[in-house]
Amino acid sequence: MNCPFCGHHESKVVDSRPTDEGQSIRRRRECIDCGRRFTTYEKVEELPLIVIKKSRNREAFNRNKLLNGIIKSCEKRPVALQDIEKIVDEIEKYLYNSMEKEIKTEFIGELVMDQLKKLDEVAYVRFASVYREFKDINTFMGELRKLLKEKTREF
After folding, report:
1. d(CA 122, CA 73)
2. Going by DSSP bridges, is the β-strand pair 24-31/37-43 parallel, antiparallel, or unpaired?
3. CB 6 within 8 A of CB 31
4. DSSP string covering the chain
5. Which end of the chain is more exposed for a tag (fewer CB within 10 A), N or C?
6. pLDDT value at residue 51
7. What is the C-alpha to C-alpha distance for residues 109 and 53, in angstroms, rounded to an integer?
8. Max Cα separation, the chain?
9. In whole angstroms, what is the distance from residue 112 CA to residue 99 CA?
């Protein structure tokens, strides 16, 4: 680490402590040459995750877009924000752990629907209707029939 004051390339760590709830480390350093102190931060480098849209356009993964989509499908439902955030956390963690650099929105949508189906069936149907772009009442009813069939298999 180069000293910001004299440019010397050697320094020693005087103090080190976690910050940002353990997401980074704050280090207090002292330059070996000039003796002045400065602070550095160390954190894990995250690889950017690219989402491939249905239109084949690419954009950076946006956690807030995912969160807002799920919140919208859960409007006026007895679903706690904490449960929604847990779903988003799990999906985001899964995507980053997959080590894929590019992920299709279809895959993300399926992950969301799997989670919503367990959490709230109405929210699931709402999300699915937008995500799968139901064109008419028959495709909507087909999805409801599948859901009912799964429900009766559970009993």
Report:
1. 8
2. antiparallel
3. yes
4. ---TTT--S-EEEEEEEEEGGGTEEEEEEEETTT--EEEEEEEPPPPP-EEE-TTS-EEE--HHHHHHHHHHHTTTSS--HHHHHHHHHHHHHHHHHTT-SEEEHHHHHHHHHHHHHHH-HHHHHHHHHHHTT--SHHHHHHHHHHHHHHHHHH-
5. C
6. 96
7. 11
8. 76
9. 19
More confident residue, 44 or 101: 101
Report the alpha-carbon distance of residue 94 to residue 99 in Å, rounded: 9
* pTM strictly above 0.70: no
- The residue-averaged pLDDT of 71-84 equals 95
Among all chains, which residue has been given the structure tokens 């009442």? 137
**Alpha-carbon gap, residue 79 to 82, rounded angstroms:** 8
Neighbours of 92 (CB within 10 A): 17
Q: Which residues of 129-150 are buried (b: 16+ CB within 10 A; e: fewer)?
A: eebeebeeeeeeeebeeeeeee
With a CB cutoff of 8 Å and minimum separation 6, the contacts of 15 are 27, 28
Cα gap 135→152, rounded to integer Å? 26
